[in-house]
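2.7 Reproducibility. Because tokenized structures are sensitive to small changes in the input, we list the exact sequence used for Solute carrier family 15 member 1, including any N-terminal residues retained from the expression construct. No trimming or masking was applied before prediction.
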Amino acid sequence: MGMFLRQSCFGYPVSIFFIVINEFCERFSYYGMRAILILYFQSFLRWNDNLSTAIYHTFVALCYLTPILGALIADSWLGKFKTIVSLSIVYTIGQAVIAVSSINDLMDFNHDGDPDNISVHVALSMVGLALIALGTGGIKPCVSAFGGDQFEKGQEKQRNRFFSIFYLAINAGSLLSTIITPMLRVQECGIHSKKACYPLAFGVPAALMAVSLIVFVIGSGMYKKVQPQGNVMAKVARCVGFAIKNRIRHRSKKFPKREHWLDWANEKYDEQLISQIKMVTRVMFLYIPLPMFWALFDQQGSRWTLQATTMNGKIGIIEIQPDQMQTVNAILIVILVPIMDAVVYPLIAKCGFNFTSLKKMTVGMFLASMAFVAAAIVQVEIEKTLPVFPKGNEVQIKVLNIGNDSMNISFPGTTVTLDQMSQTSEFMTFSADKLTSINISSTGSPLTPVTDFEQGHRHTLLVWAPNNYQVVKDGLNQKPENGKNGIRFVNALAESFNVTMNEEINETVTSHNASEYHFFSSGRMSFTINSSEIAQHCGNEFKTPYLEFGSAYTYVITRKGDGCLEPTVFRDISPNTVSMALQIPQYFLLTCGEVVFSVTGLEFSYSQAPSNMKSVLQAGWLLTVAIGNFIVLIVAGAGSFSEQWAEYVLFAALLLVVSVIFAIMARFYTYVSPAEIEAQFDTDEKKKYPEQSNPYPKLDSALQTQL
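Resulting structure tokens (single pass, no recycling of outputs):
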């Protein structure tokens, strides 16, 4: 065993490389599965948006709550190595189960391409997700702490570097998998019917999880394995409980005060345990403000992605979809972690500035707060370009003349004259109670009054003769989602026609009526119109102009003099103009914040924890992420901001306040070296009372700088 431990490579224990590869495969597996999960819920299990989102968030929160379980098993029962192996097996089974649950032909007995019994698939996928949450959560706190265990005393510098490499592996895995798994999903596969290939997209992560497990077990002989020390948590709970009870019992003035409230436990518990609990409680106390950082950080997937949907994804020659912006974070991490480690930190140290762990974390929180200020500025820019939609009791109306004569339309307080095949340039906004009558007339014909408008909606008023009109409710009260483009067809012919476009629309539009909007990604689309009365020599294939992001158009189909059909395009909502490239500064600030905050936090949690509670503190660290996710749900649910930028500013302000509080708390924190304290207790064991009145040897400044 001793021979193995001394094997090293570039001054690192060889065993580290197995742990980093294991983490890379595990994160690839997890993020790959997560990238397509919400789509799987919607398109395979046929759940609606709300149910899909709720289950998805519950799953993510579970993955951050189970680490406490994993940490308890590791620190008090199985030890880190056995915990990682046994929970990885659970995890691999979970990934395999979810891959099986997505096989279309599993329950498709009549080979029609749809499962006959969807509930079997739902049950299987829920079992799979539960196993994955237990597995990924349970091993999370153990793997990083187990990696830290491999270092000997005096290797603090390498250990710090290890936590950076470890973080890099996490992000490299997640970056590759979020690019690769969606590509696998769009392949077609199946025995009896070809469908989107979920089994392959879930199967590859499952296979990588198995690889991760095998790699980890291969390194077994080289690891330094710290034995678990009985049920630590129960001991801690009993000791804390006793200290509090004892303190309350001796409230009166005649009992001398003790230096620390935990010292009230020393009638019953040994000094060493008490000093270990002191270390943990002091770190846990510092954790209280941290969830606020994660509350901002985790909005990349939700709020910032929604912000991207109101922007234009053409950046130079490339074109990106709104949900692809998140990969910017992973790409930046892979670039920034090495730069921080090799360039920035050494430079700061050269300038003689003592940049301790907690100072780094404070800077990280400040940077994340600034990222939200940047997001708010971008949001203000976007809102200048957004169309105004009707609120509350307002009604918006646009008139579209699809007839052959010019028309006069009189609204309360204004009259509009429209030539044939033209529309009013803007939507006109009226309050519903004032909208008593709208009259249509053309020269020499009686007035026709128009009613039936719905409050809070946009309407298009189709007119084609003095007493012929149709009110169409647009149904678009916001920009089209996900940066897509809405298209609808209006039939100005005397007979119905059928329109097909991209296999998505296949709709019959009756005479003088409009179809619903259908939504398409950017690019050129072609559509076909079939009608009983198209002349033989006419073509019926048409192409749209290039569609950008977030626009909406109406295609009016009319007949030309030669009997052929002709589409005329009217714009309802103009495309997004603000470029997605403007989001890069906020991603850059947030990622810089994450690198200084998160990598440092992992390392700090490890270095300040007593040997028997390493995983428990890592789990405490992960718990702050789970709480952060809940904060988002609460703030987003409670504060209904009319302006999105105001919500960003609120989050930025909250985090700024929290980072100031954290900086003050950090000023009063004394760094300790758990190993030295424990060694001190071992030497003092022989004498009944340690001579040392203060169980915290003050660290020399050199070590403090490294922490």
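The first strand starts at residue 8 and ends at 9.
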